[in-house]
Amino acid sequence: MPALYLDFLNALDVEALELTDDEILAAVEDGLAAQGRGETVIEPRMHLVPDKNVHGHFNVLRGSFRAPINRAGVKVIGDYVDNYKHGLPSEMGILLLMDPATGVPTAIVDGSHLTDMRTGAVTAIGAKHLARKGSKVLGHVGARGTAYWNVRLLDHLFDFDEIRVHSRRPESRDAFAERLSRDLGKPVRATEDWRSCVEGADIVVEASRLLQPEPMLKTAWIKPGAFVVPYGTMSAVELSLTDIMTKLVVDDWGQCKTGQLGSLRAHVETGKLSETTLHAEMGQIVAGLKPGRESEDETNLFWHRGLSLSDIALGHAMLAKAHRLGIGQRLRYA
């Protein structure tokens, strides 16, 4: 057997890449388009709960691309709500990339920064296709790592006049608003409650960290014509939310219709979200196979549970840039 090597990008390497907003968005949008064209294989995510007495679990995501990306991948990432008590991010993990033709491992990439970036990119791309072009007010609930990239990449596309953020802990939401204000170069307001954050906003993102389902986001607060993205692990929305929507879009119906977790789990179980009521998967819209927003009057919803394909596409782009810049490490495998 010949000598085999794999590339390794740790968290410091990923930071050193200094990916631009446009680089992140382009990589993830290309991956979504490939999914929409049927050039990928994706399996629904799986969950591993090591201890029911601990507020955390592992997500296992799997997928594969044909050429030109030509990579298969498995990401394992923890989702531990109480990690802030230990000074740790709530989501930490690893992406393993392999050759889909031989099964040979080709790369290991830090999954923490990658997950934050690709989640924000999927949110922003959803808004690009489903929100009003003139959206100027963002209401965002949640302050974890993915939340930062949601707001940053959304603002990159829309240049909001007003950004409101909310999180359960005052110190968390205040620090989040301060960081965003500094990085975006504009005021970001931390609100004391959900209602003052999301009511009347053009784009509403719910990325909360609830320990159990609770309808914190009221349907009555969503204005006509808004775009809503709920993706918390535990549902924070009312069952009536889907009733006011013109279009219901998901990232992958196969994984959204199964499992025990997810913001619209109850909507699937009651039939409010089904093959009949579903408008499209986001990849179909990005690939031009299904329409996105078609009028100013539409009130649209996008539920994304997180795609292995987005992880693989962004990981592939990271490795390409790392090769150009000479960043990362080369590990002997065999």
Written overview of the protein:
49% of the residues are buried. α3 crosses α10 (308-325). The protein has 334 residues and is α/β, with parallel strands linked by helices. The chain is globular, with a radius of gyration of 19 Å. The protein starts with a strand and ends with a strand. The chain has helices at residues 11-17, 21-36, 111-130, 145-158, 170-184, 194-198, 253-256, 265-269, 282-286, 308-325, and strands at 5-9, 40-48, 56-65, 72-80, 91-98, 105-110, 137-141, 162-166, 189-190, 203-206, 227-230, 247-250, 280-281, 300-303, 329-332.
CATH architecture classification of the largest domain: 3-Layer(aba) Sandwich
Structural class: alpha/beta
Give the overall silhouette. globular
Mean pLDDT: 95
Map the helices and strands.
Blueprint: E1 5-9, H1 11-17, H2 21-36, E2 40-48, E3 56-65, E4 72-80, E5 91-98, E6 105-110, H3 111-130, E7 137-141, H4 145-158, E8 162-166, H5 170-184, E9 189-190, H6 194-198, E10 203-206, E11 227-230, E12 247-250, H7 253-256, H8 265-269, E13 280-281, H9 282-286, E14 300-303, H10 308-325, E15 329-332
Parallel strand pairs: 1-6, 7-8, 7-10, 8-9, 10-11, 11-14, 12-13, 12-14
Antiparallel strand pairs: 1-15, 2-3, 3-4, 4-5, 5-6
Helix pairs in contact: 2-3, 2-10, 3-4, 3-10, 4-5
GO cellular component, one term: cytoplasm
InterPro entries: NAD(P)-bd_dom_sf (IPR036291), ODC_Mu_crystall (IPR003462), ODC_N (IPR023401)
Pfam families: OCD_Mu_crystall
